[in-house]
Design a protein that fits this description.
It comes from Friedmanniomyces endolithicus. It holds the Pfam family Glyco_hydro_92. The protein is α+β, with helices and mostly antiparallel strands. It folds into two domains: 232 residues, Beta-galactosidase, Chain A, domain 5, CATH 2.70.98.10; 413 residues, 2-Layer Sandwich (GH92 mannosidase fold), CATH 3.30.2080.10. 23% of the residues lie in helices and 22% in strands. Strands 5-6-7-8-17-12-11-10-15 form a nine-stranded antiparallel β-sheet. The protein has an eight-stranded antiparallel β-sheet with strand order 1-2-3-4-9-16-13-14, with no helix packed on it. The chain has a six-stranded mixed β-sheet with strand order 18-25-26-30-27-28. Strand 5 and strand 6 form a beta hairpin. The longest helix is centred in the middle third of the chain and has 22 residues.
């Protein structure tokens, strides 16, 4: 057995991280793949993610949130990115761009200096390198609010660094999803070695108000020439195309300072090294949301030397100590290296977001933590936050306190948030689920009275409608936009609201979350919200039949009549904002009632019919809906690339047929997750898909809003998890062969024979403990105890 704490010094787990997993698509032979992940340098939950911004020609995704595309031309090296998110781009701000000539370059038209890459990009934890077609080699690393860039120029040629503070990642669709540059300023210190300034950019997927980010940049060697520039910014989208409306605007070069002014002019600076003996240009950059002085402090404190390797080494040390060592498995030569890469790469991706901006909140000042880039809780509430609870307890407390603080100052907790702005809400108010999950597992350090007040706001207050282009019918900024249906009707109607089926299901779980916290904080409210958590039953059409199955969630009009004429629960009309369900069909959502599986199984016709329906969704060619980037090419109704289906493969546990859960979930993992650029089945969604895989490899799966974990089958013979700061959960497996022998034959928990296919949080997750699996090659119904609980069981 591994010795907890010893392996940290002995093993560099970062060697098993492949930062390119999910960076490309499509999946070979299928029309999906590519996780939209950030490829570059970052620290766990860091504010900066330093990487290249690219524009991909002739692709359905010209730009992505992570900035990186496999063949795209480099438009800049910038300091801030999201990771794994599929919405309209956010950030790609505070840039630099190395140039070897100014011939043909117009600093107001960045299409004139885009650069293709040659050779293979290189990435590892804390490090990224690429080679531009101009001959410039680029190496990057990052601190928490800072970055270091090394530029190796061809000997004897021109050497320029362009800083365009109006740069951002564009959205090709425009509209409310496009970012907008509002203004900026730049100041050069005498000699040009140091520059400070700011950029203000709004919009993006969160449709946010403008956010200002300050910059402090420094070069190791002073340039021979440095000039600021300014010029008129026309249509922001045009920056990424040829100019079409008359003459190209001309830049005006100044001296030491430029401000964008009332016309929102673009501002920047051009730095030139004319000395032929200089071929290496090094730069350190800090950023802050408070001031340029703080940005300079971050630069100086976090990037302490001009040796890029020092920053890389510090990053590797932090990732190993704070993240990778939390889950230790054998790494000797007998181990399957692919599984090691999948485990530690998944841990890496799920720690890139959200961003810990404590001390960097420009909106209000207090002693509470500040976090941003929850993009989104809709993605990560299902199984990512449950893992944070165990292996990042202090940071998880900090996250939750930040969510409550946002409610305290802005009126609502976010479901999505980036750019210091709530938005967007895809379904329910899923911060409620996060808080309830933490509450029932006794997470310390939270004011649960205030937490419950924040949840009550979600449950009772209809948020102001911002009339977003995304959905005009109700608020998508925060809260539950369809409460005007949910409270008086008991469901979300299909004639007055969008996404009525998925929102009804999600609102039900949100209200169950309130009932869980109310048990201890406001007992008189418990039954009210427990009853509301059963309102999903109000859109259950018992007489709808499809593919020889009877009983489905179905659209219901505000007058109470089911609108089932021509209704097909396997079709959703695109599964987007204006559809009847979001990123999943009603057939799939009909399985997503984790708080009352007992009633769900009864509504589907009992255990035998429920099992038959579960079996069906895993069959090839059962999918009837083209989901585009959210699962196109997957031929089964079961779509592990979309979060609503995350728990579905494990529902055989509720029939005491755990072996089928193991069989189906392992098949999904082996089919769709790989150590390859196409290695996730769709957007990784801020690490949500990656955390699903981690739980799969641990042999457990959390039931959100409940202190319950379903028992599955581990992928390693010896796992040591550091939980709650300094306790150890040991998971061992005898008889394991990942190719042939992985069915559970028996389980012991804390040395005692275990007859249930589920655990409670208190069994092994509080003080630590042991789970011992005996595995074999033959499926076995080994469990004889009660099925997992349905604490929300109530039939209306």
């Amino acid at each position: 057995m591994l010795s907890a704490g010893l392996a940290v010094a002995q093993v560099d787990y970062s060697q098993y991280v492949n930062p390119f997993i999910g960076s490309e698509g499509p999946f070979p032979g299928l029309a999906f793949g590519g996780g939209d992940i950030f490829v570059g340098a970052a620290l766990p939950f860091g504010v900066t993610k330093v990487g290249i911004d690219t524009y991909e020609d002739n692709a359905t995704f010209s730009t992505l949130n992570g900035g990186y595309t496999p063949q795209g031309r480099v438009t800049a090296i910038s300091m801030m990115h999201e990771s794994g998110t599929g919405g309209a781009p956010k950030y790609g701000i505070i840039p630099q761009m190395p140039l070897t000539t100014l011939e043909g370059v117009d600093v107001l038209d960045n299409t004139t200096y885009w650069q293709r890459r040659i050779g293979q990009d290189t990435a590892r934890v804390g490090y990224f390198a690429t080679q531009l077609e101009s001959g410039v080699g680029v190496q990057l690393s990052a601190g928490r609010h800072s970055g270091i860039m090394n530029y190796d120029f061809p000997t004897g040629g021109e050497k320029h660094i362009l800083v365009d503070l109006s740069h951002y990642l564009p959205s090709e669709t425009g509209g409310s999803g496009n970012q907008a540059y509002v203004g900026g300023a730049i100041d050069l210190q005498p000699g040009g070695k140091l520059y400070t300034g700011y950029t203000t950019v709004g919009g993006g997927w969160s449709e946010s108000a403008p956010m200002t980010v300050y910059v402090c940049g420094e070069f190791e060697k002073a340039p021979d020439q440095a000039n600021t520039f300014t010029g008129r910014l026309t249509d922001p989208i045009q920056r990424y195309h040829t100019w079409s409306n008359g003459p190209v605007p001309q830049a005006v070069f100044g001296n030491l300072s430029e401000v964008s002014g009332p016309l929102n002019n673009r501002v920047g600076a051009l730095f030139t090294w004319s000395n032929a003996s200089v071929s290496h240009v090094r730069s350190r950059v800090g950023i802050s949301l408070i001031s340029a002085d703080k940005a300079c402090d971050f630069k100086n404190k976090e990037i302490g030397s001009w040796n890029l390797n020092d920053t890389v080494d510090a990053a590797v040390q932090e990732w190993n100590a704070d993240v990778f060592s939390k889950i230790q498995v054998p790494t000797d030569s007998s181990q399957n290296r692919t599984n090691l890469v999948l485990l530690y790469s998944s841990l890496y991706f799920m720690h890139l977001m959200p961003s810990d901006r404590t001390g960097e909140n420009p909106l209000w000042s207090n002693e509470e933590p500040s976090w941003d880039d929850f993009y989104t809780l809709w993605d990560i509430f299902r199984c990512t936050t449950s893992l944070y609870h165990l292996i990042q307890p202090e940071r998880y407390v900090s996250m939750i306190r930040a969510l409550i603080d946002i409610w305290r100052w802005e009126g609502f907790m976010p479901d999505g948030r980036s750019g210091n702005y709530n938005g967007l809400v895809q379904g329910g108010s899923n911060a409620d689920n996060v808080l309830a999950d933490a509450y029932v597992k006794n997470l310390p350090g939270i004011n649960w009275t205030e937490a419950y007040q924040a949840m009550l706001t979600d449950a009772e207050i209809v948020p102001y409608n911002t009339f977003s282009f995304t959905d005009f019918t109700a608020s998508v900024k925060e809260g539950r936009g369809a409460l005007y249906d949910w409270i008086p009707l008991g469901y979300v109607s299909s004639d007055r609201s969008t996404r009525p089926i998925s929102r009804s299901v999600e609102y039900a779980l949100n209200d169950f979350s309130l009932s869980q916290v109310a048990r201890g904080v406001a007992p008189n409210d418990t039954q009210k919200y427990l009853r509301r958590s059963a309102q999903w039953q109000n859109i259950w059409a018992h007489n709808v039949t499809h593919k020889n199955f009877t009983g489905f969630l179905a659209p219901r009009l505000s007058n109470g009549i089911f609108n089932t004429s021509g209704y097909n629960p396997a079709i959703c009309g695109g599964c987007e904002w204006s559809a009847i369900s979001y990123e999943g069909t009603p057939f799939e959502y009909s399985f997503t009632i984790p708080h009352d599986m007992q009633t769900l199984i009864q509504f589907m016709g009992g255990p035998v019919e429920f099992e038959r329906r579960l079996d069906y969704i895993f069959l090839p060619n059962t999918s009837e809906q083209n989901l585009g980037a959210n699962g196109a090419g997957i031929t089964t109704l079961m779509n592990i690339g979309n979060e609503p289906d995350f728990a579905t493969p494990y529902q055989y546990n509720y029939l005491n047929k755990q072996y089928k859960s193991v069989q189906q979930s392992r098949s999904l993992a082996n089919t769709y997750f790989h150590d390859a650029p196409y290695g996730v089945p769709g957007n990784s969604d801020a690490g949500a898909l990656n955390s699903w895989l981690i739980w799969q490899m641990l042999g457990l799966y959390p039931v959100v809003t409940q202190p319950v974990y379903l028992v599955e089958s581990p992928w390693f013979s010896d796992i040591n998890m550091t939980i709650n700061g300094n306790d150890t959960l040991s998971i061992t497996a005898t008889g394991l062969d990942n190719a042939n022998s992985y069915y559970v034959q028996s389980v012991k928990v804390n040395g005692q024979q275990w007859s249930k296919n589920w655990l409670e949080h208190s069994d092994v997750m509080v003080k630590g403990g042991t789970i011992e699996f005996e595995l074999g090659s033959e499926p076995k119904m080994w469990e004889s105890g009660d099925v997992p609980p349905s604490p929300g069981h109530l039939i209306l």
